[in-house]
Write a structure and sequence with these properties.
Elements: H1 5-59, H2 62-82, H3 86-91, H4 97-126, H5 144-168, H6 177-210, E1 217-225, E2 235-245, E3 248-256, H7 272-278, H8 281-284, H9 295-310, E4 316-320, H10 322-332, E5 335-336, E6 342-343, H11 348-359, H12 362-382, H13 387-399, E7 404-407, H14 410-416, E8 433-441, E9 451-461, E10 468-478, H15 484-487, H16 490-493, E11 505-512, E12 518-524, E13 533-537, E14 540-549, E15 554-562, E16 571-575, E17 583-588
Parallel strand pairs: 1-4, 8-16, 9-17
Antiparallel strand pairs: 1-2, 2-3, 4-7, 5-6, 8-11, 9-10, 10-15, 11-14, 12-15, 13-14
Helix pairs in contact: 1-2, 1-4, 2-4, 4-5, 4-6, 5-6, 10-11, 10-12, 10-13
Length: about 600
């Protein structure tokens, strides 16, 4: 069949059209490829700049921090602009290449947000909220810079939350390994800075009010003694009242447990579960308010006991222990107590928890504790401490649950409740069971100086119905000398009260399972004076086992739980802070 002029023209049109499509496609691919290559190079330059900003701020070199932040912003914004044109977005619907382009665009946008909405604002406020300047001077803290920075820091936290959600939503299924690896690294980096940003935002929300920016505050400080353990960290040994007003901080009163005789009835109504688990002693003896692991209840009981005895108003309750005092002494340097002894970061713990009981009478011990608390407070309030070291000391104590805070002001308490400072009950997620292990001494002495403890929680899917299981293993050892009953002071061994042989340690091991979980059973690696008890508290299963340990003896408690609300076999472990620090681990559970 001969080709007609009309057919030839049609072929030429088709050929030209195809050629144009090919050229346009090639141009588009080339356009996207070139922009993608440049964007990749820009994104690679961002990571070292982020670390440069962090290091410069930490060292106090704000000039270098601003320079690095400016360069970071330039690279991030360029990468974002290169990956956000209509052609790039249109290509994201293509197979194979599309998911990679989408992930790249989202990463670049997140980098720009980190630069513009997080790093730059923080650099701006860092000059006014200088850690080295935010410390007491002659007993007062200048709150004005912190108050002024609050709106900016709150916006930074909002920006961080947005970036965290955006990076978490990036889909990596179908992407190249290099892309998925990059997304994983960015997610890890974003997760890593989250705690610092949250801590900073919480600080600006809490500190001005707690230090009296809006009016006078009464702060009750509880000194807990882990030589006689309670669930929150130790028996209350002494109490200090601090007055804060417009940043001025003063120690106005001190008291010992001798100032609080046992009450006939709880100082305030106890939660039903609290009374059922720990008895009315929690509300009748100031020493025992920490027997409940829920610090908000312990704090309110202590506050009520103080105001009943001395009047006034308590706005906040703080709890610390001698380990925290040791951390603080690392920042302040040595202090001298009333009798001329010098305390420092190295000798504070053995002196306050061991030597004081052999070197001083009972009344003398109270005087020593009061003098030590006053000396450390005076040193901190003077402003002579290294501010950075001081913040690190408090942060370490908070992370170890040795520093606990409760506020009578609901807005402040809602912020505290989201942190480890709250001393709340174990918190579970959909993928991890919140498990708590707490210790209450029942010796009646100070023998927990010699108590060594390890806790392990193991989780797995062991049941046919798919409900995850957790096994909590608590191992306790009495490391006291074999002749402890004769060689240690009677005040330490407990005088043999409560039927405990001198030298022996009696501990009530309290295990809380996850909200909505079930207690399967509790067993021990030795004979108990009392059998394990089962109960519930706020929807959580609770097991209480009493363990008696002679010197050199080790015993183990095992508690099995079903994590009904969890979809994964994992656990988050919370443990009473002990003197030596309990070794707490998550391990794999071998199903039988």
């Amino acid at each position: 069949m001969e080709s007609t002029p009309k057919m030839s023209t049609r072929r030429r049109v088709i050929s030209i059209t195809v050629a144009c499509v090919v050229l346009v496609t090639a141009a588009a691919v080339g356009w996207i490829g070139i922009r993608g290559l440049i964007a990749k190079q820009e994104l690679k330059k961002i990571t070292p700049l982020v670390y440069a900003v962090e290091d410069s701020v930490a060292s106090g070199d704000l000039g270098a921090a601003r320079s690095a932040a400016t360069e970071l912003g330039d690279h991030a914004r360029l990468a974002a602009s290169l990956t956000d044109d209509p052609l790039w977005r249109a290509a994201e619907i293509l197979p194979i290449i599309g998911p990679n382009l989408a992930a790249g665009r989202q990463l670049a946008a997140a980098a720009a947000d980190v630069s513009d909405r997080i790093v730059s604002p923080l650099i701006t406020v860092s000059a006014s909220v200088d850690l080295a300047k935010f410390r007491p001077v002659k007993g007062a803290v200048d709150l004005a810079p912190l108050v002024a920075a609050t709106p900016t820091i709150v916006r930074v936290q909002k920006a961080y939350d947005d970036v965290h959600r955006a990076v978490g939503a990036i889909r990596t299924d179908g992407t190249l390994g290099v892309v998925s690896d990059a997304v994983g690294k960015v997610r890890g980096a974003v997760d890593g800075v989250g705690p610092s940003i949250t801590a900073l935002a919480n600080s600006v929300r809490l500190l001005p009010g707690m230090l009296g920016a809006d009016g006078p505050r009464g702060i009750l400080l509880l000194a807990q003694n882990p030589a006689e353990l309670r669930a929150t960290g130790g028996i209350v040994g002494s109490l200090v009242l601090i007055h804060a007003d417009k940043g001025s901080i003063k120690l106005v009163a001190q008291a010992s447990t001798a100032d609080f005789p046992a009450l006939a009835h709880p100082v305030m109504p106890l939660p039903t579960a609290t009374e059922g688990l720990f008895g009315t002693v929690v509300g009748r003896y100031v020493q025992d308010v920490g027997a409940t692991p829920y610090f908000p209840v312990a704090a309110q009981l202590a506050a009520k006991m103080w105001t009943t005895k001395f009047g006034g108003r308590i706005d906040e309750v703080l709890a610390i222990d001698p380990v925290t005092i040791g951390y603080l002494l690392g920042a302040t340097g040595p202090v001298t107590i009333a009798d001329g002894r010098q305390l420092d970061a190295n000798n504070a713990i053995p002196f306050l928890l061991r030597d004081v009981y052999s070197d001083y009478s009972s009344s003398g011990q109270d005087a020593v504790f009061a003098s030590a608390a006053a000396a450390v407070f005076t040193k901190v309030a003077s402003g002579s401490a290294d501010a950075t070291a001081l913040v690190r000391a408090l942060a370490q104590a908070g992370a170890e649950r040795r520093l606990l805070i409760w506020s009578a002001h609901p807005a402040e308490q809602s912020v505290i409740a989201s942190t480890t400072l709250a001393g709340g009950l174990p918190v579970s997620t959909s993928s991890a069971a919140g498990v708590g292990v707490y210790f209450n001494d029942a010796t009646g002495g100070k023998m927990d100086y010699y108590l060594k403890s390890t806790v392990a929680v193991a989780s797995a899917f062991c049941r046919a119905d798919g409900t995850p299981s957790s096994r909590v293993t608590v191992t306790l050892t009495n490391t006291a000398p074999a002749d402890a009953g004769q060689s240690l002071p009677a005040y330490v061994t407990g005088y043999g009260i409560f039927g405990v042989i001198p030298g022996m340690i009696r501990t009530r091991v309290v295990v809380y399972g996850p909200d909505g979980g079930l207690l399967v059973g509790a067993t021990g690696g030795g004979a108990f004076r009392n059998p394990s008890r089962a109960a519930t508290d706020s929807g959580r299963p609770v097991s209480i086992s009493t363990v008696d340990l002679r010197p050199g003896v080790t015993k183990t408690v095992v508690v099995d739980l079903l994590n009904v609300k969890q979809k994964a076999a994992d656990a988050i472990l919370t443990v009473t802070p002990t003197l030596g620090g309990t070794v707490a681990t998550n391990v794999a559970l071998a199903c039988k």
